[in-house]
Design a protein that fits this description.
Chain A: This is Carbon-monoxide dehydrogenase small subunit. The complex is a heterodimer of chains A (162) and B (795). Chain A contains five helices and five strands; from the N terminus they run ββαβββαααα. The relative contact order of chain A is 0.15. The chains are: A alpha+beta (162), B alpha+beta (795). At the A-B interface, helix 1, helix 2, helix 3 and helix 5 of A face helix 1, helix 2 and helix 17 of B.
C-alpha cells in the first residue's frame, strides 16, 4: 500500500514551495512537517481550539480542517510571516509581549493570526469587539484577560504605524 | 546603580521566540523526513480480558517499521509501570503495564504500539490490528466503586486502594459537647488539566556514543531520565532528557513515565532511528489523567459565634483504574481542607477508590479545590444556621497573625508537619471585602430584586502549601564574554522562568539582565532536580538560583579584590562591572565579569580580547599551585536549596453572579482576588498566573465535567463537547489585590503562586449562586440545566 502523491505549489509567507503529498495530508501537517514551519500548532485537530489558525488569502482558517492540496493557488500566512521585514515584532506580536498576552505560547500563533485578520477588518475595535475578535480561540493559561488587552494595544500600535 | 529587578514587571524574554513561531515544543523537534512516528491502539472497552491480539494484517503494510504488543516487551519493560509515591496507607497500589498484558481497565488503555513513516500510516496500521475481548462489568463512579458489586482489580477487595485517617483529638467527644451541629453531603465531579499541547516524546539513539537523547513534554526531566534508564537497562549516564518548550502542563505532565515515554526510546534504540509520538486530543482525554472527583460527608459542631469545635470529614476519592501517583491528591484534600481556620478538633478519613476510568493524578490545585469546597460550604452552612454574615463566621475561626508558625497537628503531603509559616488572614478578609464591595452588596441585591433580577455574592478562603521539597539546585556560570549562563533542573511550561530567574540572577550577581540566559529541564545541565509542580518553582529553584548566584558573586569578589588590590568588602558589582565602592567608574580601577572569568582559569590562551585584557592583572601566589587546593578553575557558582517544610501561601476570592430567573443562565458580574504569595519576583507574571487559574476555576465550577456513561465510555472526549471556557465565559476583568507576608523559610521570602487562582473556584461560585437562589448548592460543577432542576426541587 503506497499512497498517490499530488504535486503542487504552496505559497507560504511569500515563498513558493513545491510539494508532493497524499491527498489526505492536512495543511497543518504540511506546514509543520513538510515545510518545517513549526510555528503553527495543532491543539485539537477538530477545528475547535484555533491554535492552528493561519491566514488563507488574508482570511483566518483552521489549517487542521483543510487538506494541503486545497491551499493550492492561495497565499498562506503563518505566524512566521507576521514579523516586520527587519524581523522586529509586528504590531500584534509586540502588543502580546507588552501586555503579557501569552504564557506557554502554544495557542499564541492562532491568536496572532486571528487578531491580525481581525484588526484588518476592524482597525479600531471597541472593548466588546476586541473580546469578540478572540472568541473562537482557546487558551488554557492566560484567562484571556491580557489577550484582550493585547488586541486593544495592537490596534493602537497599528494606528501609530499607519 | 543597577536597579533591583525583584518585584518589577519585567517583560518576558521567552516571548521573543514564542511570538515569532520559533518556540520548540516536542512535536517541533526532529522535523525531518527520516523521523518515524507512532500511534497506539487503545482499548475501546472500560473493562475486559484480552483474549487474542492479531497483528498479522499490519506487518506487511508499506511504511510500517514495528508493531509491538505486551508479548514483545522483555525485562523491566514487561513489569508494571512504577508506583511513584508509595505510602504506608496505600496497601493496594496497582499500576498499568506499558502495553496491556491480559486485561484492560479503562477506555484508552494502551494495547499495541505501531511505528511507521508518518502518523497517518501508523494510524492506518492501528486500524488493522484485531483484538478479541472478553467483556467484564465496568465500575464507573464513586457510588459503584463503594457498592463494590463488581471489582476493578480482582485482588482488591471493595475497590479500596487506601484508607487513611488523621485526627487532632477526640472528635466524637468534642462533637457531643458542641452546642450546634450540622451535616453536609457534597460532591465534586471530574475535570482535567487539558493543556493545549498534549503529551509528546521524541527519542534518538546515537550508536556512535551509545547514548540516548530524549525530548519529552514533561514536568520532570530528571524523573523521566531515571525511569527510562531503569526500564531500558541503560546506565543513567547514557540517557539525556531535555524538556523543550511545553505547551501547558497544569499537573498532568508530572506523572511519569507514560507508556509512550518508554516505548518511544525503546523503538529509537531498536530501530536506530529518531522516533516521535505526539498525542492527539482524543488520546489526551482518554489516556492521560483526570482529577477532582470526590464525594464528601462533613459533620461539624460549633458554638453561637460559629467557632469550629469539632470537624469530622469523610470523603471518597475516585482515582481511576490505576494509582501511579499514590495518595498525593487525597492527602492534600484532607489536610489543606482546613484553610485559614483552626478547628478545636479535626478528624478526616478518606478512601481512595478504583474505578474503570482514566486514572487520576494532580491537576492544578491537586486536591485543594475539593478541600476548600468542603470547608467553605461548611462555613456558609454555619453562617446560614446562625443567621450571621458569612465573613463573620470565617473571621471567628481565623488563625491570628501572632499565632505563626501555626501547627495544624497533621502530616502534610511531603511527610512533614502541616505547619503554616506566615500569613495575615484578618487583613486579607478586610481587603477582599473592600475589593468586592461586600458590605454594600445587600442594598444592591435588594435593588436588583426590585427589578426582577437575581444576584448573589460569594466568598471563599484558602491556604496553599507551596514549594514542597525535597530540593532544587542551580548552576551559574560566568563566561569570559561576561554572559551568565544559568541552569536549573526543573522544567517550564509557561511560567516565564527564563525571565523571573534572570531577574534574581541580575539582582544577586550585579550583572545585566540581558546577559543572563536561563536553561531549565535539561539533565545535561543539571542532573539533580525534582520538577515543576506544587507551586514550587519560584520558591525552590528561585532560592537555589539566588544561592548559586551568591556563590558565584563570592568568587567574583575574591578574584576581583586580588586583581584590583582592594578588600572584598570595599567592592561592588553593577551592570557586570566590579569597582571600589564610591570610586568613579571612569577614573577608578574596575574589572568586568568577563575579565574576572578569564582570571579564574589559569589556562589562559589569549584567543580573544578579554584574555589579552586580563594579562594586565596578576592574581594568585607564584609560590603556590595555579589552582589552590580549596579552589577550582572557572567562574561558577552551584548550590541547592532544601527547605525544612513547605511555605504556605493564601488567598481569598469573591464573586458576584447573576442567575437568570427563567433560563437559569449564570453570569459573572464581578470577580475579585486577594492573594498572598509572599514577596513577588515579577508581579506581571504572578497576575497572569492568577488570571489563568481563575479562568480554569470558572471552567471547573460552571462548565467542565468528564461525562462517563455507565459502560465507562467518555462521551465528551473532544473540545466540541468538553466545555473549556473561551473569553466569552470568563469575567471581563479580574480585580486583584496583593498582600505580602514574606516566608521566613527561604532567603527571598517568596511563596508559590501557580495554583492559587483555581483553588477556591468551586467554593466561591457555590457560595454566590446559593446566595442568589436562596438554597444551598451541594454539587459542583453546576450548569444552567442543573440549576433549573434544583429550582424545581426547591420550589
Amino acid at each position: 500500500m503506497s499512497e498517490d502523491l499530488h504535486e503542487f505549489a504552496l505559497t507560504v509567507n511569500g515563498v513558493t514551495h513545491d510539494l508532493a503529498v497524499p491527498a489526505r495530508r492536512l495543511l497543518s501537517d504540511a506546514l509543520r512537517h513538510d515545510l518545517g514551519l513549526t510555528g503553527t500548532h495543532v491543539g485539537c485537530e477538530h477545528g475547535v481550539c484555533g491554535a492552528c489558525t493561519v491566514l488563507l488569502d488574508g482570511r483566518p482558517v483552521r489549517s487542521c480542517l483543510m487538506f494541503a492540496v486545497t491551499a493550492q493557488g492561495a497565499e498562506v500566512t503563518t505566524v512566521e510571516g507576521l514579523a516586520n521585514d527587519d524581523d522586529s515584532l509586528g504590531p500584534v506580536q509586540q502588543a502580546f509581549a507588552e501586555c503579557h498576552g501569552l504564557q506557554c505560547g502554544f495557542c499564541t500563533p492562532g491568536f496572532l493570526t486571528t487578531i491580525t485578520a481581525g484588526l484588518r477588518d476592524n482597525p479600531t475595535p471597541t472593548h466588546e469587539q476586541a473580546r469578540d475578535m478572540i472568541a473562537g480561540n482557546l487558551c488554557r493559561c492566560t484567562g484571556y484577560q491580557n489577550i484582550v488587552k493585547a488586541v486593544e494595544r495592537a490596534a493602537e500600535l497599528s494606528g501609530e504605524q499607519r | 546603580m543597577t536597579t533591583k529587578l525583584m518585584g518589577q514587571p519585567v517583560q518576558r524574554t521567552e516571548d521573543q521566540r514564542l511570538l515569532r513561531g520559533r518556540g520548540r515544543y516536542a512535536d517541533d523537534v526532529a522535523v525531518s523526513p527520516g523521523t518515524l512516528h507512532c500511534a497506539v491502539l487503545r482499548s475501546p472497552h472500560a473493562h475486559a480480558r484480552i483474549v487474542d491480539i492479531d497483528v498479522s494484517g499490519v506487518l506487511d503494510v508499506d511504511g510500517v517499521h514495528a508493531v509491538w504488543t505486551y508479548d514483545d516487551l522483555t525485562g523491566p519493560m514487561a513489569e508494571p509501570l512504577p508506583l511513584l509515591i508509595p505510602h504506608p496507607a496505600l496497601t493496594e497500589g496497582r499500576t498499568q503495564y506499558a502495553l496491556a498484558k491480559d486485561r484492560v481497565n479503562y477506555v484508552g488503555e494502551a494495547i499495541a504500539f505501531v511505528v511507521a513513516d508518518d502518523r497517518y500510516l501508523a494510524e492506518d496500521a492501528v486500524g488493522r490490528i484485531e483484538v478479541a475481548y472478553d467483556l467484564l462489568p465496568p465500575v464507573v463512579g464513586i457510588d459503584a466503586a463503594r457498592a463494590a458489586e463488581h471489582l476493578v482489580h480482582d485482588d482488591v477487595p471493595g475497590n479500596v486502594a487506601a484508607r487513611m485517617e488523621q485526627a487532632t483529638g477526640d472528635v466524637e467527644a468534642a462533637m457531643a459537647k458542641a452546642p450546634h451541629t450540622l451535616t453536609l453531603d457534597l460532591t465534586v465531579e471530574r475535570s482535567a488539566c487539558t493543556p493545549l499541547e498534549g503529551r509528546g516524546t521524541v527519542a534518538r539513539w546515537d550508536p556512535d556514543t551509545d547514548r540516548l537523547q530524549v525530548w519529552t513534554s514533561t514536568q520532570t526531566s530528571t524523573g523521566v531520565r531515571a525511569v527510562v534508564a531503569a526500564k531500558l537497562g541503560l546506565d543513567l549516564g547514557q540517557v539525556d532528557v531535555v524538556t523543550p518548550d511545553v505547551g501547558g502542563g497544569f499537573g498532568v505532565k508530572i506523572n511519569h513515565p507514560w507508556p509512550e515515554e518508554l516505548l518511544v526510546p525503546l523503538a529509537a534504540r531498536a530501530l536506530g532511528r529518531t522516533v516521535k509520538f505526539t498525542e492527539d486530543r482524543r488520546e489526551h482525554f482518554i489516556s492521560s489523567a483526570h482529577e477532582r472527583g470526590q464525594v464528601q460527608h462533613v459533620e461539624v459542631g460549633f458554638d453561637d459565634d460559629g467557632r469550629l469545635l469539632a470537624l469530622d470529614v469523610r470523603f471518597w476519592h475516585d482515582h481511576g483504574a490505576y494509582i501511579p501517583y499514590g495518595l498525593i491528591v487525597p492527602i492534600i484534600t484532607s489536610t489543606q481542607l482546613l484553610g485559614p481556620y483552626k478547628p478545636e478538633v479535626y478528624r478526616v478519613v478518606f478512601e481512595s477508590l478504583y474505578t474503570n476510568t482514566v486514572m487520576v493524578t494532580p491537576y492544578r490545585g491537586a486536591g485543594r479545590p475539593q478541600g476548600c469546597y468542603a470547608m467553605e460550604r461548611t462555613m456558609d452552612a454555619i453562617a446560614g444556621f446562625l443567621g450571621k454574615d458569612r465573613t463573620e463566621v470565617r473571621a471567628a475561626n481565623f488563625i491570628q497573625p501572632d499565632e505563626f508558625p501555626y501547627d495544624q497537628g497533621l502530616i502534610f503531603q511531603d511527610g512533614r508537619e502541616l505547619e503554616y509559616d506566615s500569613g495575615d488572614y484578618p487583613a486579607m478578609l478586610e481587603k477582599i471585602k473592600a475589593l468586592v464591595g461586600w458590605d454594600d452588596f445587600p442594598a444592591y441585591q435588594q435593588e436588583m430584586a426590585a427589578q426582577g433580577r437575581r444576584v448573589g455574592i460569594g466568598l471563599a478562603c484558602y491556604v496553599e502549601g507551596t514549594g514542597v521539597g525535597p530540593y532544587e539546585g542551580a548552576h551559574v556560570h560566568i563566561e569570559t564574554s561576561g554572559k551568565v549562563k544559568v541552569a536549573t533542573g526543573l522544567t517550564t511550561q509557561g511560567q516565564g522562568h527564563q525571565t523571573a530567574f534572570a531577574q534574581l540572577v541580575a539582582d544577586t550577581l550585579g550583572c545585566r539582565f540581558e546577559d543572563v540566559e536561563v536553561v531549565t529541564g535539561d539533565t545535561r545541565r543539571m542532573p539533580y532536580a525534582v520538577g515543576t509542580f506544587a507551586s514550587r518553582a519560584a520558591v525552590m529553584s528561585g532560592s537555589a538560583i539566588h544561592l548559586a548566584a551568591l556563590r558565584a558573586r563570592e568568587k567574583v569578589l575574591r578574584i576581583a579584590a586580588d586583581a584590583l588590590e582592594a578588600a572584598e568588602d570595599d567592592l561592588e558589582i553593577n551592570d557586570g562591572v566590579v569597582s571600589v565602592k564610591g570610586n568613579p567608574l571612569d577614573g577608578g580601577a574596575v574589572i568586568d565579569l568577563g575579565t574576572v572569568a578569564v582570571l579564574s582559569n589559569p589556562l589562559r590562551y589569549a584567543f580573544d580580547e578579554k584574555s589579552r585584557v586580563a594579562t594586565q592583572f596578576t592574581v594568585g601566589d607564584p609560590g603556590k599551585p595555579p589552582v589552590a587546593e580549596d579552589d577550582e578553575p572557572g567562574l561558577e557558582g552551584k548550590d541547592f536549596y532544601s527547605p525544612e517544610r513547605s511555605t504556605f501561601a493564601s488567598g481569598m476570592h469573591a464573586v458576584i453572579v447573576e442567575t437568570d430567573p427563567d433560563t437559569a443562565e449564570i453570569s459573572i458580574l464581578k470577580y475579585a482576588v486577594v492573594h498572598d504569595c509572599g514577596r513577588l519576583i515579577n508581579p506581571m507574571i504572578v497576575e497572569g498566573q492568577i488570571h489563568g487559574g481563575v479562568a480554569q476555576g470558572v471552567g471547573g465550577a460552571l462548565y467542565e465535567r468528564m461525562a462517563y456513561d455507565e459502560s465507562g465510555q467518555l462521551l465528551n472526549a473532544s473540545f466540541m463537547d468538553f466545555l473549556m471556557p473561551y473569553v466569552t465565559e470568563v469575567p471581563d476583568g479580574i480585580d486583584i489585590d496583593h498582600l505580602e507576608t514574606p516566608s521566613p523559610l527561604n532567603p527571598l521570602g517568596i511563596k508559590g503562586a501557580g495554583e492559587a487562582g483555581v483553588i477556591p473556584s468551586a467554593a466561591v461560585f457555590a457560595s454566590a449562586i446559593s446566595d442568589a437562589e436562596g438554597f444551598a448548592l451541594t454539587a459542583m460543577p453546576i450548569s444552567p440545566s442543573d440549576l433549573f432542576t434544583l429550582r424545581q426541587e426547591h420550589s
